[in-house]
Amino acid sequence: MQEFLQLIVTGLVIGSVYALVAMGFALIYKSTSIINFAQGEFVLLGGYICWWFYTSLGVPVVPAFLATMAIAVLMGLVLERVMLRPMIGEPIISVIMITIALATVLKALVTILWGTQIQVFTPAIFSQDAIKFGPVLVSEVYLWTFGFAFLFLGVFAAFFKFTRVGISMRAVADDQQVAQSMGISVKRVFAISWSIGALVSAVGGILVGNINGINIALADFGLKVFPAVILGGLDSIPGAIIGGLTIGILENIMGSYLDIYLGGGVKEIAPFIVLIVILMIKPYGLFGIKEIERV
Fold it and tell me: I want to staple 31 with a disulfide (CB 3.0 to 4.6 A). Which of 100, 125, 193, 271 is the partner?
């Protein structure tokens, strides 16, 4: 039982970061109907930029963190304006290919600038010391990661619900034409959606980088988030949060209990096994909106 509880706690920590990145993924799709396959590269770039400021340049952790978030927002705005806004009205497959090409370019840029070796935050931002909660030991870095992830989730949940911009984004997500007729700038909402998507992904990269270090493999984080988005419903932000937590727990449990029988590697493929099962049983996810077309 103690081991099982330990797995759940660790899964919740990683799942909270999945939820954070999945929220950005779902937000972009909900507002723009675009699946962003460069989300993992946003995670990668955010981790490396913060590491570069903090470790290479010696910038204190708070300014480094804030600078990384500012760069992520700017990157989201520029990418939306330069690459994606001109594609409005074009076939969706063309837009998807743009995001795939963007992912390749960003990964190549990171490789050119920082190489492929694992980098760690030096000195460590969060302590690795363990704190005991009953029968469960939890590292301080896990507690900080979980806390920061849910802080950002809470801030953006409040932003979507109570601010004028958040309400405009929800209106655009429901019906772009109606929102535009009410004086809401759809292009502005698109830009904000991409900037928030890049921001939460960059924060996710910083948090994961403090646990496992940073290297080019961090880009795969975006693909592992995709099952979480599908589980919750591709156009549901609350669903993305629940899906992220669920995938984090399932990944950890399946990896721990099945690796001894299958020789390892189960943790890496567990999210995609869940993805296949979800698509077979409930293609629209737990909270996704089922589309019915009349012929």
Answer: 193
How many angstroms separate the Cα of 230 from the Cα of each of 18, 33, 136, 277? 12, 14, 31, 11
CA distances from 5 to 1, 106, 137, 146, 265 (A): 6, 38, 10, 16, 22
Residue 292 DSSP label: -
The rounded distance, in Å, linking the Cα atoms of 135 and 259 is 24
Residue 285 belongs to what H/E stretch? none
The Cα–Cα gap between 56 and 114 comes to 11
Where are the domains positioned within the chain?
Answer: 2-222
Residue 228 CA to residue 248 CA, distance in Å, equals 9
Question: What are 236-280's pLDDT values in tens digits?
Answer: 778 888 888 888 888 888 888 887 777 777 788 888 887 888 878
